[in-house]
Amino acid sequence: MNVDWEERWNVDRLRTYRADRSRAALAASNLGALLLFDFNNIRYVTSTHIGEWARDKMTRYALLTRGGTPHIWDFGSAAKHHRLNCPWLAQENIHAGMVGLRGAVAPDAGLFRAAAREIRDLLKAEGVHDMPLGVDIAEPPMLAALEAEGITVVDGQQVMLDAREVKSIDEIILLNTACAMVDGAYQRIAEQLKPGVRENELVADVTKFLFDLGSEHVDNINAVSGERCSPHPHVFSDRIIRPGDQAFFDIIHTFLGYKTCYYRTFNVGSASDAQRDAYKQAREWIDASIELMKPGVTTDQVAKVWPKAEAFGFSSEMECFGLQFGHSVGLFLHERPIISRLNSLDHPVELKEGMVIALETYCPAKDGYSAARIEEEVVVTAEGPVVITKFPSDELFVANAY
Question: In Å, how far from its chain's centre is CA 68?
Fold first, then answer.
């Protein structure tokens, strides 16, 4: 999806932007370095990736020091591959590394201690040993090993969130491309959403469709229909679709690292007044929040246009968290800012040009079991909000009407 005869996304510009943002965020903090175990932070800082199979193993890590260049420790032969194929990284900064595969190799084997000593020596060599080390996520034995070497460990995730919050033109192009793939997936669902098909069949078909289009990973597809719609279970099942069902879907997938979060609601064959009313209300709530996606607006202003928990059947904002909701999306599914009545009213965050925000609303129907769910991804620009999720959603979509 890149050619030599049109200007699309530029890989060198993308790598440079992310590296510069990371260094600037670190320089603006009180930290001497960042030690990163989260795959998405590692990718943001080093532009390396070895597949989703390794995400839950906590064995890859990267180090960025104040004023330095990134180090990467990767799984076995991946380090040698990086030396051959990643010329933007210093060859001497690419290391093989392994700290235990989430305990499968016990801490007593000493891998954590060895890694901590290597990191200590690098911090000393780069002149930041006496400053705090920011860590995003880590296993307890890793934290203990670092502290045993006299390293002060603090939260580094906030620094990385600072770096990632404003997207470059290349990141926005990649996010837009990822959404275009889901546009097509929803067309496929609309054509196949008929009585007799199961939720899991739709999930399987869409997963293949996205991989065929070039998806790097299909993180999750919610397929929720009929009586499963209210309350929202946040997971698909093997339920058989029936005539008149309301059904909503959330397609989360990754294209070159960048994710989608993109809900649509359909009815199967026909729709009742209660189902149409629920959809209309969810649409009104999301339109009100889209209108506010402008630089300088604060997230408490956005959260206030959404209903209180009690107004749509919940006892607290915690219990309905994620239903009337906004979140930035990028290499992470949930980046800053997180917008909801749970946190935004007392701790507002200012929207900035270049943020890409996914906005989600949910409305249960008066029939007691149907519900409407809509989500749009919006780029915050100086000229106003730009919606990049394009499958039709102004009105309730009745698939295969009869």
Answer: 28
Instruction: Please report, for the chain, the start and end positions of each structural domain, with discontinuous segments joined by +.
Output: 11-164, 169-399
SS3 156: coil
State the Cα–Cα distance between residues 19 and 256, nearest whole angstrom: 17
For residue 1, name the pLDDT band (cuts at 50, 70, 90).
Answer: confident
CA diameter of the chain: 72
How many C-beta atoms lie closer than 10 Å to residue 322's C-beta?
A: 14
Determine the 3-state secondary structure of 262 from DSSP: strand
Confirm or reject CATH 3.40.350.10 for domain 11-164, answering yes or no: yes
pLDDT tens digits for 68-106?
A: 999 999 999 999 999 999 999 999 999 999 999 999 999
173-186 tens-digit pLDDT:
999 999 999 999 99
Beta strand 246-255 with 94-96 is: unpaired
The number of helix segments (H) and strand segments (E) in the chain equals 10, 16
- pLDDT for the residue numbered 70: 98
Confidence band, pLDDT 50/70/90 cuts, at residue 402: confident
- Chain centroid to CA 219: how far? 10
Residue 41 near residue 160, CB atoms below 8 Å: yes
Q: What is the DSSP string of 218-257?
A: EEEEEEEEGGGGSS--SS---PBP-TT-EEEEEEEEEETT
Q: What pLDDT shows up at residue 285?
A: 98
CATH of the structural domain 169-399, one choice from 3.90.230.10, 3.40.50.2300, 3.40.50.2000, 3.20.20.510: 3.90.230.10
